[in-house]
Write a structure and sequence with these properties.
Oligomer: single chain
Radius of gyration: 31 Å
Strand content: 5-15%
Shape: globular
Distance between the termini: 134 Å
Number of helices: 29
Largest sheet: 7 strands, antiparallel
């Protein structure tokens, strides 16, 4: 019995061992998947868009064109396709001639655009009577704007990008000061164009980290991948023969916005058609959004809400205005999950068809100028029925005048708040109301997050800081609102909120409080862990700079120098940081170091006026007045009203005992800056000479 039992055990053991050998052999002999097989398996099993991953590279419009020639040929003539290009006669929509002159009365400058061979220039000059007492020609590098509304102009110096002070407004066919340059705010040729601007007005550019406006590459126009995502994986799949029947399934190698859930589709559009106060999430940049993502995972976009100003809008507020419309609100099914929404049939191939989104009315591949009113009216009738005109309550005279055009009444055209001479369609769909006869008072209510119903408290606080810094510097109550979100009752809270607390105090000119915060974190040895990060926004560099400014304003130049140096280490291409570092080096009598700093600035941008002025001062202090005057003259050739250049030139004439000419330059300072104490004091000392 035992022998039989033993035999059974042995046989079973043999079977188990044999089975193990077979399994081991099969496992051992199985070949690993080749890279091609692994890639194709990934494609076959995908349940989400694969090109969202930031390792997938962009391939460029011309690669897309190889398979999508027809769509490409149509798209390049849209507003997006023509959004940006090098300055050329073909690109320009403007009118030119000897009488095309813009005069800025507030700053007393004239501007004349003209072509010199195939290069575009803006000629800036000033008259005294009939005499031209100042002139400057600036070559234009790029034209931004499709010409549907405007052509604005930019120039580049060693990659540093600036906006020129005049724009051509195509609807009125006239030149005028650029948006934001009128009413005494003409910054002439010094307005920086940064990553936030260029990441919407163009395809993603090459940007130099550690700068505010230096670029290595500027593509020509918005291209396919801004809406469809990076194309590398899609191209590779096609080359390997992986073809998806998109009438029956989703191709997860490339985003098709038409097949996105409604909320994600709207996010693709509102990445750029939602101009506002953009607050980036920690660690994110304007590069990070890709189609198929939730925009609120990258940034929160805040807009101010005013009482009684519902009919006013800015140029790129299409999504914000659309979201106010009952047509939009009623067409989407609110999801309880984080306030995000999905249209009915979200699992279908085209979920947007049951909701009102941007592409309900707009085909992004077709120029809107080629679409007639009837096409848009038909879309209205798709929801409201073709008999809608029979129940319209508008006066027949009005209806006949506009040809029963729904859009003309329910989406009226109007002037934009931010761009003069531009009339565009308001995307707030509503029943028209009679205009109020009483004068409306513009009363600020709050900031609201357009793309995220539940922003963090930090995002809300930063929105108030940025609203003051960039849009409403005459409204200090915004900073009080911001402070509410950043407590400072303990060293840990000060450390956690350090950058935001410093920003609030900086804009309040409360330098003593900034230094108090620095003392708190230094006592706990926390400062070395705060100002260390480099990113596209230069957040820590700006904080270091603001701390440096606090010490500088209190005359503590050694500490100021230390923080300016930290700012330049984190962001070496922000030239104003370098300039302030050089200033403290001069004050600390470190003239060799200051000379090196200012020459570095000028090697980056020879037109950086403060560096020219300060380097001239160093030459004067070093006993080389000839070189000093040379740099002062260069500065004034770029800006005849630069106060420091004028004061330094007056000082140069005093150094050379030419007091009469010194008074001329001091008088020029006092004409432009009548309250300048240094000019007044120096002029008083020279009166008896």
């Amino acid at each position: 019995m035992n022998r039989k039992g033993g035999a059974v055990i042995i046989r079973n053991l043999f079977v188990v061992l044999l089975l193990g050998v077979v399994i081991f052999s099969a496992t051992y002999c199985r070949q690993p998947l080749s890279p091609k097989e692994a890639f194709l398996k990934t494609l076959d099993t995908a349940k989400h868009y694969l090109n969202i991953n930031d390792t997938v590279k962009y391939v460029g419009m011309h690669t897309c064109m190889l398979c999508h020639q027809g769509i490409h040929d149509s798209f390049v003539h849209t507003g997006m396709g023509e959004s940006f290009d090098v300055a050329s006669k073909k690109k320009s929509s403007a009118r030119f001639g000897p009488h095309e002159i813009v005069y800025d009365k507030a700053k007393d400058f004239y501007y004349h655009p003209f072509w010199k061979n195939d290069s575009l220039y803006v000629y800036e000059y000033r008259l005294q009577g009939r005499d031209t007492i100042y002139r400057h020609e600036q070559k234009i590098s790029y034209i931004i704007g499709s010409g549907q509304h405007t052509n604005s102009h930019m120039y580049s110096v060693n990659g540093y990008l600036y906006q020129a002070p005049i724009t051509f407004y195509t609807q009125k066919e006239e030149w005028d000061l650029a948006p934001g340059f009128s009413d005494g705010f003409n910054s002439r040729f010094t307005r920086e164009v940064g990553l936030e601007c260029m990441s919407c007005h163009n395809s993603y550019p090459g940007f130099v980290k550690g700068s505010t406006n230096k670029f290595t590459e500027l593509p020509s126009g918005i291209a396919c991948e801004r809406c469809h995502g990076a194309g590398e994986m899609h191209v590779k799949a096609i080359q390997l023969g992986h073809i998806v029947d998109t009438t029956k399934a989703i191709d997860y190698t490339i985003v098709n916005p038409a097949k996105l859930p409604v909320d994600l589709q709207v996010d693709v559009c509102q990445r750029c058609h939602l101009q506002g106060n953009a607050v980036l999430k920690p660690g994110k940049s304007f590069y990070d959004f890709r189609p198929g993502m939730h925009l609120s995972d990258i940034e929160d976009v805040f807009m101010p809400k005013y009482e009684g100003m519902q009919d006013e809008f800015i140029m790129a507020s299409h999504i914000a205005r659309l979201k106010m419309s009952k047509c939009f609100i009623n067409s989407v099914d609110k999801s309880p999950l984080k306030g995000r929404f999905r249209g009915a049939g979200a699992d279908s191939l085209k979920p947007y068809l049951s909701s009102l989104t941007c592409v309900t009315c707009h085909n992004p591949h077709i120029d809107v100028r080629s679409v007639g009113d009837n096409a848009f009216n038909s879309i209205c009738q798709n929801c409201h029925g073709k008999k809608v005109t029979q129940v319209c309550t508008e006066n027949m005279d009005v209806r006949n005048k506009v040809g029963d055009n729904c859009v003309s009444c329910h989406m009226p055209k109007g002037n934009t708040l931010d761009i003069p001479h531009v009339i565009t369609t308001d995307h707030y769909i509503r029943i028209p109301m009679p205009e109020r006869e009483t004068e409306r008072v513009r009363k600020f209510i709050t900031l609201y997050d357009v793309n995220n119903p539940n922003p963090s408290s930090e995002a809300r606080g930063r929105a108030f800081i940025q609203q003051f810094a960039h849009f409403q510097s005459d409204f200090p109550a915004l900073l009080d609102s911001a402070k509410h979100y950043f407590p400072d009752s303990s060293p840990e809270e000060v450390k956690r909120n350090f950058s935001d607390l410093v920003s609030i105090c900086f804009y309040k000119d409360d330098y003593a409080e900034i230094i108090r915060y620095v003392d708190i974190v230094q006592q706990k040895n926390l400062l070395s862990n705060i100002l260390v990060h480099r990113d596209y926004e230069n957040a820590d560099a700006w904080t270091a700079y603001r701390v440096g400014e606090a010490y500088f304003q209190r005359g503590e130049n050694i500490s100021a120098n230390m923080f300016y140096k930290k700012a330049t280490e984190l962001a070496p291409f922000v030239l104003e940081f370098q300039n302030k570092l050089g200033t403290t080096e001069v004050l600390l009598n470190q003239l060799a170091e200051a000379n090196k700093t200012y020459n570095y600035i000028l090697s980056e941008n020879p037109q950086f006026i403060p560096a020219l002025t300060n380097l001239g001062y160093i030459y004067l202090m070093s006993g080389d007045p000839a070189h000093a005057k040379e740099y002062y003259d260069k500065a004034l050739a770029l800006d005849p009203d630069d106060k420091q250049a004028l004061l330094n030139t007056a000082g140069w004439y005093i150094f050379n005992k030419n007091y009469k000419q010194a008074k001329v330059y001091l008088a020029m300072v006092l004409k432009k800056y009548p309250d300048d104490l240094q000019a007044k004091s120096t002029m008083d000392k020279l009166r008896g000479i």
